[in-house]
Write a structure and sequence with these properties.
Elements lengths: L14 E2 L3 E9 L3 E8 L5 E7 L1 H4 L2 H11 L12 E6 L5 E6 L6 H7 L4 H20 L12 E3 L7 E3 L14 E2 L6 E2 L14 H17 L9 H8 L12 H8 L11 H12 L4 H8 L6 H23 L17 E8 L2 E8 L2 H15 L8 E3 L8 H10 L5 E8 L2 E8 L2 H18 L2 E8 L3 E3 H11 L6 E2 L5 E3 L3 E8 L2 H15 L3 E8 L2 H9 L9 E6 L10 E3 L4 E8 L6 E7 L4 E6 L14 E3 L2 E7 L22 E10 L11 E3 H14 L4 E12 L1
Parallel strand pairs: 12-13, 15-16, 20-21, 23-31
Antiparallel strand pairs: 1-2, 2-3, 3-4, 4-6, 5-6, 7-8, 9-10, 11-12, 11-14, 14-15, 17-19, 18-20, 22-24, 24-28, 25-26, 25-29, 26-30, 27-28, 29-31
Helix pairs in contact: 4-5, 4-8, 5-7, 11-12, 14-15, 16-17
């Protein structure tokens, strides 16, 4: 569980509705938090998903919570069971569901890549859960690695969670909520980008998350909406994925809906055939039967020949010592080695003779820098083949340059885990180990993580500063360092999609086994000039809401099409009444429209503007076209072909008026940037908060 924070919705020990005692926080997001709790009546451990107070009064988010609660009618071990949807005495809406103990697939991906058979087992289990959900008319729409929990760390007990879409919609979040699209772009089916979702959309997401689990990283969906749409029209790149996993992914992720399996039940049937082979030969192939690979076939033959020769030599009295007390037999024959701990060597297992034991001890010392004590290895019979000592020595040599490594050899199988300094050295180590496995005939399971163990935030900041070309690029973390498995979230604006590519190229080799999420918008030169002139200040609760003037519904994507009437309002916490508000729109032609204050409304005091609803102060700045009939002084717009492109709504909160005199209704970007730079230099402590929002007009 996470450490408590002052701003948490609930606190440990708090009892909700006289029933659920909060034990601790298990997750935080932009719209709410998740808790582990105990039902004081039944003693059952549950999970509670709660909305922050400002969203608990929002009908859209409450509707999503109600939708998620509908899942309580589904009874299947692969689907999390929901109990109720309720409201606390303080007004927060919360869901109660089963507590599923175990890591998510995302958590596992942060440590290692999943093996093909593990993924096939997970796919079978998730498909069974989808059969149950789809049978009730429920489409998940947001299936992804962080929404599947491996109960008790077991792929066979994978469990689907989070059937609602009420997830993090703050800056940097990847889950999008709205009428037009819901899901994560990386895993969403092509039809979801058009606002359509059906059961086969979940099958596409299942295939995409299987590919992500095999590669060990989130797939790149594109830097711009246009690029995302184009990428979704092409098959996913499954290069290097072994069969039968490759065929399963390609079938599930067919871009055309009709080319995918007809339903989840047919996916279950196909995976049944793959995971439950009927012939002995198929079982050996599926299980990677040890002793069937070329290297060990030869080793077994050599052992037989040596045994025959040794017997003849003993008959003639040429081999001394064979009449002594025989060595014990080791079954299985093992060697276990790990990096030293507290300066002490860690080596144990078997050796066929003293010379081999000494040679393996030296190989361990070379790899670790610490020599093991005499007698660390026990002499025994039962060695799998004459090539085993060389294979053991060679794999110890491969540990040089790696940290936290451990090796377990058992018969003809090997398990290796280690930490490489970076991704490049990790990939090189993986290549060497795979070559070792092919040469030795061993069946290898490897888990090689990429470091560094701790990545300073300052290191990432230096890389971002060097490549920023449209205002500053920010990280979610402000100080300290990133641990292995953390997500590095980069936000801001860039001058081109190529900048995003350069950021990935610069950061990915250096961050190791951490996820990189770049949520940067591409802006034209005029918008970049404004972005660069804005002060680097937090929003401090200030935000910009966009909606459709015809329906009044929120537009979370910020994309509007020809003929639509965008509306906008500046939102602030209801209790934030201090300060002066200034709002402008930078349009696609490179002009700045100063819309608050204006010639018809000189009011700037935040406390005197807008209305307070649902815990928010809402100040409308772009209005419905229908409202102009009652007040022609309002500002409203309709998207035409002359407006196509990106505009920016800018809101600045200051202690005193931002400018000494009211700005003209319309001015050039150059004029505005010069004025803003001048006022910042004259009164640098005046500014308190800045919020921006892109408005993207398309045909």
């Amino acid at each position: 569980m996470l450490d408590p924070m002052p701003g948490d919705i609930f606190r440990p020990g708090q009892v909700l509705n006289n029933t659920y005692e909060i034990e601790g926080v298990i997750g935080r997001g932009g719209t709410g938090e998740a808790y582990r709790a105990r039902n004081q009546i039944s003693g059952r451990t549950v999970a509670i998903k709660a909305l922050n107070r400002q969203f608990s009064g929002n009908d859209d988010y409450i509707a999503l919570m109600r939708r998620e609660e509908q899942m309580r009618d589904i009874v299947h071990d692969a689907v999390v069971r929901y109990s109720e949807c309720s409201r606390s005495d303080q007004g927060q809406v919360f869901l109660v569901m089963d507590y599923v103990a175990g890591p998510s697939i995302s958590d596992v991906m942060a440590r290692r890549r999943l093996e093909p058979r593990e993924l096939l087992i997970i796919a079978h289990r998730v498909a069974e859960g989808l059969v149950a959900a789809h049978g009730r008319g429920i489409v998940h729409r947001d299936l992804s690695p962080d929404n599947i929990i491996l109960r008790d760390s077991s792929p066979e007990r994978a469990t689907i969670i989070d059937f609602g879409i009420a997830k993090d919609t703050a800056a940097g979040a990847r889950t999008i909520v709205g009428n037009d699209f819901a899901g994560k772009y990386e895993y969403a089916a092509p039809e979801q980008l058009e606002g359509k979702a059906e059961p086969r959309s979940d099958l596409y997401a299942l295939g995409a998350l299987l590919l992500a689990g095999f590669r060990g990283q989130v797939p790149f969906a594109g830097a711009t909406p246009g690029e995302m749409i184009r990428r979704k029209q092409s098959p996913l790149d499954t290069t290097g994925v072994p069969e039968p996993l490759k065929g399963v992914i390609e079938a599930l992720c067919a871009p055309r809906l009709t080319d995918r399996p007809r339903d989840a039940a047919s996916v279950v049937a196909r995976l049944d055939q793959i995971l439950r082979p009927t012939s002995a030969r198929e079982r050996r192939q599926a299980e990677g039967a040890p002793g069937r690979r070329g290297g060990w076939l030869w080793a077994g033959l050599a052992a037989v020949l040596l045994a025959v020769a040794g017997g003849a030599a003993w008959q003639m009295g040429l081999v001394p010592g064979l009449t002594e007390t025989p060595l014990p037999r080791a079954d299985p024959w093992r060697l276990e080695a790990a990096a030293p701990q507290d300066g002490a060597a860690r080596l144990s297992g078997n050796a066929p003779d003293t010379d081999t034991a000494v040679a393996l001890a030296r190989a361990y010392g070379t790899a670790s820098g610490v020599m093991p004590p005499e007698g660390a290895l026990t002499l025994a019979t039962g060695m799998p083949g004459p090539g085993w000592p060389k294979a053991a020595s060679d794999i110890l040599d491969e540990m040089q340059g790696l940290a936290d490594w451990s090796i377990t050899l058992s018969g003809t199988t090997a398990e290796v885990s280690a930490l490489a300094p970076d991704a490049t050295l990790r990939d090189a180590a993986v290549t060497r180990l795979d070559s070792w496995a092919a040469a030795s005939g061993m069946t290898l399971t490897r888990r090689i993580a990429a470091g560094p163990r701790a990545l300073p935030v300052a290191t990432v900041a230096d890389a971002l500063a060097a490549l920023a070309d449209c205002g500053p690029l920010a990280q979610a973390a402000a100080e300290g360092s990133y641990a292995l498995g953390d997500t590095i979230t980069v936000t801001g604006t860039v001058a081109s999609a190529q900048t995003t590519d350069r950021l990935r190229a610069a950061l990915l080799p250096a961050i190791g086994d951490r996820r990189l999420q770049i949520d940067a918008s591409v802006l034209d030169p005029n918008l970049c000039a404004v972005q660069a002139a804005l002060p680097e200040l937090p929003a401090n609760g200030l935000s910009i809401w966009l909606g459709d003037g015809m329906t009044g519904q929120a537009n979370l994507s910020g994309v509007f099409h020809a003929g639509q009437n965008p509306i906008a309002e500046v939102q602030a916490p209801a209790d934030a009444a201090r300060g002066m508000l200034w709002v402008a729109i930078v349009d696609t032609t490179g002009k700045v429209f100063n819309i608050l204050p204006n010639i018809h409304n000189e009011e700037q005091a935040l406390g005197a503007l807008g209305v307070v609803e649902g815990g928010l102060r809402r100040v409308r700045v772009l209005h419905r076209l229908a409202d102009l009939a009652n007040d022609p002084n309002l500002m409203a717009m309709r998207v035409t072909d002359a407006d196509f492109g990106k505009s920016m709504v800018v809101a600045i909160l200051s202690d005193r008026p931002l400018f000494p005199t009211r700005r003209p209704t319309e001015e050039s970007v150059a004029s505005f940037v010069a004025a803003l730079s001048e006022t910042r230099a004259a009164d640098p402590g005046n500014l308190r908060a800045v919020a921006t929002r892109l408005l993207d007009s398309r045909p």
